[in-house]
Amino acid sequence: MALVVQKYGGSSVGTAERIRRVAERIVETKKQGNDVVVVVSAMGDTTDELLDLAQQVNPTPPPREMDMLLTSGERISNALVAMAISSLGAQAQSFTGSQAGVITTSSHGKAKIIDVTPGRVRSALDDGKIVLVAGFQGVAQDTKDITTLGRGGSDTTAVALAAALKADVCEIYTDVDGIYSADPRIVPDAKRLETVSFEEMLEMAACGAKVLMLRCVEYARRYNVPVHVRSSYSTKPGTMVAGSMEDIPVEEAILTGVAHDRSEAKITVVGLSDQPGYAAKVFRAVADAEINIDMVLQNISKVETGKTDITFTLPRELGPVGMEKLAKLQTEIGFTDLLYDDHIGKVSLVGAGMKSHPGVTATFCEALSEAGINIELISTSEIRISVLCRDSELDDAVRALHQAFDLGGDEEAVVYAGTGR
Amino acid sequence: MALVVQKYGGSSVGTAERIRRVAERIVETKKQGNDVVVVVSAMGDTTDELLDLAQQVNPTPPPREMDMLLTSGERISNALVAMAISSLGAQAQSFTGSQAGVITTSSHGKAKIIDVTPGRVRSALDDGKIVLVAGFQGVAQDTKDITTLGRGGSDTTAVALAAALKADVCEIYTDVDGIYSADPRIVPDAKRLETVSFEEMLEMAACGAKVLMLRCVEYARRYNVPVHVRSSYSTKPGTMVAGSMEDIPVEEAILTGVAHDRSEAKITVVGLSDQPGYAAKVFRAVADAEINIDMVLQNISKVETGKTDITFTLPRELGPVGMEKLAKLQTEIGFTDLLYDDHIGKVSLVGAGMKSHPGVTATFCEALSEAGINIELISTSEIRISVLCRDSELDDAVRALHQAFDLGGDEEAVVYAGTGR
Predict the structure, then answer these.
(1) Where are the alpha helices (DSSP H) in A32-114?
(2) Where ATP is bound, by residue (chains A, B) (predicted)?
(3) How large is the ipTM?
(4) What is the enclosing helix (H) or strand (E) of B48?
C-alpha cells in the first residue's frame, strides 16, 4: 500500500461542483488501496475577496493579522472537500497547518517551513481516514502565531508533508497537463515532458517556468520526494519530476526545454572604481535591501580610467527600491551614474544534455541572431544558458530556440492559465 | 484601570464601514484607560454562505468538518477588526478560540466550555495590546479538534473570558438598546430596564427573551460577571444585568417584564396508568431522545378508571422526534393515546417583586380573561408566572399583561431585529 500526497490548486476547487469532482478523484485513489493525504488551496477567488476586505479596513494591514485572515481560505476549502469526500461514503478529516504540525519561521506572509511533525495526520491515516491539510499555512515556532508561506506555499506544504510522511509520491494537480518544453501559449508545438530531473526542474523554475515554484522543487530535491505534476481536469500522465540528472546515462541526456521570464529589471552601475571590494559594496547595498539579484555582468575595465560598469538583474517590483538604495550610497560607494531598464526579457535553455552535446552555445547564439535578436547579457550554468534581450523580442527568442534545438512534439498542449498559491 | 470585555454581533460588523465604526468604539474604550478584550461574531451573512456551500457538497455534513468550516467566519471578522484598529494607531492582536484557551467538550456544533486558560490573551494585554478573540469557538479538551459552541456561543465566549480574566464588566453590543419590559415589536411602549438581577434575567431568557441567551446568563451568574447590554449603533445607557435579587430591598422589588415564546409544542399522553413510576417512564423516554421538556401538567386522575393524562411542552423542532419516540413505547409504557399541538404560545411575567406583591397571580389571570384569552396551562416559580395559550392569541396576551401590571415607559424603543450567534 502506497502513501500518496495530492495537492489541488484553487481553480480545481473553485465551485461546489469542482469540489465534488476533486473528492471523487481522491476517493478513487483511496479505493486503489493507497493512504491519501490531500492539500487544497483556497477556493478560486476567496483570497482576492479577503485581500479586498482587508484593503477596505486598512490599506497597510499588519502582516500577522493578514495571515490570520488569509489562512481561513484554506480552512474553508479543506473542510468542504472533507465533507464532499464523506458524502461519497469515505472517511475524511481536515487539519489546519498548525494541527498538521507545519512549524515555520515567524516572518508573516513569507514564512519558511522549519519542521513538519505530522503526528495527528499519521494517526488519522492509521485509522483509515483520508486526511486533508490546509496548505499555505503553518504555526510559528517561537510566537505560536499563524503564518502563511507566501507564493507556492500550498505546493511546498504538500512536498513537505510528503517528505515528513515518507510518501511514495507527491501529486501536484494543476490546470496544465504537466511540464512543457516551453510555454504552450508562445510555442504551440511545445512538448509535454515525461520526466524531468530535480536539477533540470530547478533551473526551469529559476528561469521562469511557473508550473512549479522554485522553493517547492528545492524542498522535493532535498528530501528526494518524487513530484508528479498532473491536470485536475484530465487523467493524462503528466510529468514526473524525480531523480538526479547524475543518474541519466550521458548518452540519453537531452535538452529539457526553453524557459522565459519577463519579471526582471536591469540596473547598471556606471563608472565604478575597478578596485577589489567596490563590486562587493554594490551587492552588499542591494542585499541589505533584501533584494535577490539574478544575472551579473562586469564590463572589462577601461584602462585609461580604471573605471568599470556592473550590470545586474533583479525582480522588477523591487527595481525602484534597489535604485533608491544605490542612489543614496553614490558618494560612499563612488560611481558616476545609475541606469535602470525594465524592458528586458530573459530566455533560458535548460538540459542535462548540454554537458555532453558540444556546440550548444553556438547553436543558441546563431538561432537568436538569425531571428534578429540582440543578446544583451549571457549567463550559464552546467546545464543552462540564459540571455537577456528586449522584452518585446522575448516570444520570438523562445520560439527560435525551441525550434533550433528541435524540442517540439505533436501532442496538443493545454494552455497554461496560471495557478493560485 | 478597568478590564473591559466587549462582544459585537455579526450585524455590527457586517460591512467594512461598520467594522471601522466598531474599531473606533473599541479604541475609544482603550483610550479611556481600560484594558480591552473584544469578541466578534462572524460578519453578517458569512455563516449562511458557508452553510449554503456545505449543503451543496454534502446535505448531511460531518459535524467536525462543519465546525472547521464555520469557525473560519469568526477568524475573518476578528482579523479585520484587528486591522481596522491598527489603522487607527492602536495595537491589536486577534486570537482563535483555541489560541485564547477556550477549552470545550468535543460535541461538535453544541460544545460546552470546560475551562478558559487565557495565558496568551493576558500577556498580550500586559503588552498594552487590544485583544480580539474569535467567538463561538474553542478546542476540544480530548480530541484537540476545533469546536463550535452553538447558539449564543459568542456571548458565552465573551462572558467566559470576562470570568477567566476577572474583567470588571462584559459589554454585549447588539442591535437593541437593552433589555425591555416586553418585545417592543409587540408592545410599543415597552420600557428599557436600567438594571436586571441575574435571577430575573435567567427567567426572562428561559421564557423567550432573545437578547441574551440562557447559557450566557447562567455563566455570568455563576461567575458573577456584570453583563452590560448596549446598542452597537448608539451610546445609550443600555441595561446592566448584575447582582442577585436577594440584594434588592423587598420594598423596591418590582416586576421586570413580560416574555413570550412561540417556539414550543405540546404533547399530551392520554390514559396513562395513575401508578407510581409511569410518569417517570414517559419522561425517561423523552430524555433518552435528548429532548429538554419545559412545562408539565398532570391531570387529576379519574377515580373510575385509575387513569390520568400528562401534558408537557418541548421545543417545537423536536416535537416529531418526541412523538415518534413515545409512539414506539406505547405498549411498553401503556397509554391509550398521544396528542400533539404546535399552535401554542407561552407568555410569562417575571419579577422579584412577585414575592412581595400579593395578588399578582389574580391580576395576571384577570388580565388574560378580560382579553378573552383562555389559559391552557400554568406553571410558576418564585419570581415567574407562565401560561400557555393559542399562538394566535400570544401578542394580545403580552400586551394585556404588560398593561395590567403597568410596565410601560415613554422612552422610544428600538425594534429588535434578531441577533446572530
Answers:
(1) 46-57, 63-87
(2) 7-10, 174-175, 180, 185, 210-211
(3) 0.82
(4) helix B46-57
Alpha helices in A88-152 (DSSP H): 119-126
Beta-carbon separation of A75 and B71 below 8 A: yes
CA angle at A270 for the pair A265 and A276, rounded to the nearest 5°:
105
Annotate B323-360 with b (16+ C-beta within 10 A) or e (fewer): bebbeeeeeebebeebeebeebbbbbbbbbbbeeeeeb
Are residues A68 and B58, on separate chains, in Cβ contact within 8 Å? no
Closest CA to A183 of A204, A155, A153: A204
CA distance A196 to A242: 6
Work out whether the CA dihedral B109, B114, B120, B125 comes out positive or negative: positive
| Residue owning grid cell 404588560 | B402
B22: nearest Cα among B1, B3, B2, B44 = B44
User: Domain extents for chain A?
Assistant: 3-175
Fold of A3-175: Carbamate kinase (3.40.1160)
Instruction: Tell me the shortest Cα–Cα distance from A68 to chain B, in angstroms.
Output: 6
B416 annotated to bind ligand:
no
Sequential DSSP letters for B381-417: ETTEEEEEEEGGGHHHHHHHHHHHTT---SSPPPPP-
Count CB atoms within 10 A of the CB of residue A239.
24
The per-residue b/e assignment along A258-276, b for 16 or more CB within 10 angstroms, e otherwise, is bbbbebbbbbbbeebbbee
Name beta bridge partners: A308: A272
Sheet holding A227-231, edge to edge: A92-95, A130-134, A35-40, A3-8, A169-174, A227-231, A239-241, A195-196
pLDDT tens digit string along B115-134? 999 999 999 999 999 999 99
pLDDT digits (tens, 9 = 90+) for B265-287: 999 999 988 888 888 889 999 99
Asked if B68 lies within 8 A of A82 by C-beta distance, the reply is: yes
Query: In sequence order, what E strands does A232-283 have?
Result: 239-241, 257-261, 264-273
Q: CA B306, CA B303: separation in Å to the nearest integer?
A: 5
Mean pLDDT (10-residue bins), chain B, 421 residues: 93 93 96 96 90 94 96 96 96 96 95 95 97 96 94 92 97 92 93 93 90 91 96 90 83 84 94 85 90 85 81 93 93 92 95 82 92 91 92 96 89 47 44
Amino acid identity, position A365: C
Amino acid at site A248: I
